Amino acid sequence: MSQPHYARDLGLCLCHTCGYACDDGAQECPRCHSHVHRRKPNMYARTWALLIAGFILYIPANTLPVMYTSYFGSGTDNTIMSGVIEFWKDGSWDIALLIFIASIVVPCLKFFIMGLLLITCQRRSRWAMRERSKLYRFVELIGYWSMLDVLVVALVAALVQFRALSVVEPRIGILFFGVVVVLTMLAAMTFDPRKIWDAEVDDVR
Amino acid sequence: MSDRPESPTPGTAEVKSHRFRISLIWLVPIAAGLVGLSMVVHSWLSTGPQITVSFQTAEGLEANRTQVKYKNVVIGTVTRIQLSDDRSHVSATIELDESAYPFTRKDSRFWVVRPRIGAGGVSGIDTLLSGVFIGADAGREEETTNTFEGLEAPPPVTYGDSGKRFTLHTSDLGSLYVGAPVYYRRIQVGQVVSYALSKDGKGVDIEIFVNSPNDRFVITDSRFWNASGVDVALGADGLRVNTESLSTIVAGGIAFREPNWSPDPKAANEDTEFELFANEQNALAPPDGEPRYIQMRFDQSLRGMRVDAPVEFLGINVGRVVSMNLEYDDKSGNFPTVIGAVIYPQRLGRAHEELVNEMGGEGDEQTAKLMKRFIDNGLRAQARTGNLLTGQLYIALEFDANAPKVAFNPTTKPIEIPTVAGSFDRLQEQLQAMVDKISRLPVDEIGNNLNGSLAELQRTMKQVNGQVLPEMQGTLKKASETLEQVARTMETANQTLAEDSPQLQQVETTMDELQRTARSMRVLTDYLSRHPEALIRGRSGESAPGSYDPPTPSRTIEEQ
C-alpha cells in the first residue's frame, strides 16, 4: 500500500472531540460545535509549559515529606524515597519496588519520553517514528498509575487514626506529587501525536 | 460539507494567533517555579542554627529520627551521628529550628532522655516505645556557641523553674544523691541539685533547689537535716517509728523546718548557706554556741562509756564525751580513765545568759572562775548508768553537798572537773558492806542455842503429854456426872412448876386467903378510922361490922 492520504489533501480536518470530518478551514464542528483545528493549537508551548511546571513541582514532591507516621508518640516525616528505603530495609522489597516504580520511575519516564517526543517533533526528526508513537501511547497508558502513591497516602491517613497508638497524616509533599501527576497527564493530553508524522510532509498547523 | 459558504475569515485568524505569541499556558510553569522558589526561601529562612553535642554513647540515637525536645516541643532533629576523632565519645549534629536560637547559648544543656528507674521514681517510660529523644534546656548567658557537651543524666532543675537555690554544709553526704527530695513538713518542695566536696576537702557542700512558691518557707533560721532512713525511738509512750517517706527509707532525702521559736522569721535569700544536721533532733535543738573542753579523771572501770556519750548537767544534755584515755598513776599504782568532753554552755539557756551577765563575760578566765565557784559548791562529775540493760554510761554533772573538798586550779587547761564514784559503784559498795555485816553474824552459835531451846521445849511437851493429860481426863469425867445430876434436878424442878401441879394450886389458895385477910384488914382499918372509940368500947350495934357486905369470896365462886 502506498502512502495514505493526508486529510488536508482531501480538504478535510477532524473534530478533536467527536471525530467528525469537517471541511478544512471550518471554525466549528457542525456536529458538536467544538472548535476545529488541523492540529492541537499551540501544542509545543502548552506541552512544554505543563511538562516544565510538572518537573519543577517534582522537586518539592520528592524532597518534602509526603506522610507523617507516629507510633506511640514518636512521629517521623517520610519522603517518598525514605519510605521506599524503609520498606526495603524492613524486608518488604516487593512493596518498596512497587512504590519505587509508581512514584519515581513512572514520573521520570514521563518527563523523559515527553521531552524526547517534543524535541524530536520540533526538530522534525524522522527517526523511529513508529516507536515514538508507541512510546506516546505507553505514556498515556501509565500516566494515571502514578496516582497510586497519592491514593495510598489518602487511604492510610484515613484508616490509621488510633490516636495514641499510631497516627498517619498526609504532608504537603503528596499535594505536590499529585499536582505533578496531573500536570504530566495534561501534558500528554495536549501533545498531538500526529505531529510525529508531520515530519514526513510540510508543516501542518 | 458542500454548501458551506466561502468566508473571508482566515485573515482574522492569522491576526489572533499573532497577538498571543506567548501563550498563557506558560503561567503554569511560572506559578510552579514561584511555588518552588517560595519553598526554597522558606526552608532557607526556617533553617535554624546547627550545633554539635557530644555524648558518651549514642545508644538510642538515630540520625534524622531522634528529636530534640524542650518541654516536649520538638525544636530540632539529629541529622548526623559520628564518632569523635579520638573515639572517646560520639558527637551528634543537631539542626535546630529557627526559633531555637536561645538554645545555642553557652550554658544551654542537652541530655538524652532514656527510661530511668531509680529509688526516687521512674521517668521517661514513654521513650521505651517511642525511642529516646534529646532534652534541651536553654541557657541564660549572652554568649553563644555551637559545640556542647551533653549531660549523661537529666538535670534535676531546669532554668525555667522558679525557686531558690541554697547551699548546705555537712560532714558527709550520707545516702543523698542528685535529685534526692527535699521535704518541708513531709511535702516534697525541692531536690538536691548537686553536691561537691568543700574546698578544703573536710566536708560536703550540697546544693538544693526549692521550688517556688514553697521557697518562701525557707527562712534565715531554717534547720535542715538528713531525713534518710528510719528513726526508731523507744520512748515512755511506746515505740515510735519516724520517717519522711517510703522513698527516703531507700534513697534518702533532706527535710527542713523552722525551729519552734524563731524570733525574726525572714525568707532566706538565694544561695544562703545552711548547716545540714544528722537528724531532726539535732537540727531543731537551739544553737550550741562556743564549745568548752573539760576533762574528768575517773578511778573506776568505765565499761559502757563510749565517745559521744551525753554529758548532762542537772539532767540537761549539755555536751558529749569526745575522748577516753587510760592513764597510769605512778603514786597510787592504778589506772585512772581520763574522759575528755565538750560542753556547750549555751544549752543552759537562760541560766547561761544570767551567769554571763553576772561574770561580765564569756572568756576563758571568767569560765574558770565560774567553774571554781561551782566546784567549791560541790559540782562533781559522775559516771552513771543510763541504761540498765546495756550498761551504757553517761556523765552527770551534779552538785553534791557532801562531797569532800577538792583543790581546784583555775589556770590548768583544760578545766578538770573532780569526780565522785558512780551511783552504781556506790550501790555496789553499800551492798558489799551489808554483805560483810551479814557474814560477820554468829550464825553457828545462834543455831546451837536454838537447837538447845528446841530440845527443852520438846521435853516439856512430853511431860505435859504424860502426866497432865490423864488427870485432866478424870476430872472431865466427874464434871460430866455432876452435870447429869444438875440436869436431873432441873427436871424435877420443872415438874414441880408445871401448871397443873398440886403445889401450884396450893399456892393459889394461899394467895386467895391472903387476899381475904387483907380485905378484912381494910374493913377493920376503915371501921377503926370512923369509930376509933371501938377500940375501947367495943362495937356498937348499928355500926357493927356486920353492915358491911363483903364480896363473894373466891371459894364460893368455885363452889358455885
From TrEMBL, chain A:
Keywords: Cell inner membrane, Cell membrane, Membrane, Transmembrane, Transmembrane helix
Transmembrane intervals: 48-68, 95-120, 141-160, 172-191
Compartment(s): Cell inner membrane
Top-level taxon: Bacteria
An annotated GO cellular component: plasma membrane
One Pfam family recorded for the sequence: PqiA
Principal cellular location given in the protein's record: membrane
InterPro entries: PqiA-like, PqiA-PqiB_transport
Protein name: Paraquat-inducible protein A
Organism: Pseudomonas matsuisoli
Lineage of the organism: Bacteria, Pseudomonadati, Pseudomonadota, Gammaproteobacteria, Pseudomonadales
From TrEMBL, chain B:
Pfam families: MlaD
Cited InterPro entries: Mce/MlaD, PqiA-PqiB_transport
Predominant localisation class: membrane
Mce/MlaD domain ranges (all copies): 48-110, 163-223, 292-399
Domain of life (superkingdom): Bacteria
Keywords: Cell inner membrane, Cell membrane, Coiled coil, Membrane, Transmembrane, Transmembrane helix
Region of interest called Disordered, as start-end residue ranges on this chain: 538-560
Coiled coil ranges: 476-524
Keyword Cell membrane applies: yes
Name of the protein this chain belongs to: Mammalian cell entry protein
Species annotation: Pseudomonas matsuisoli
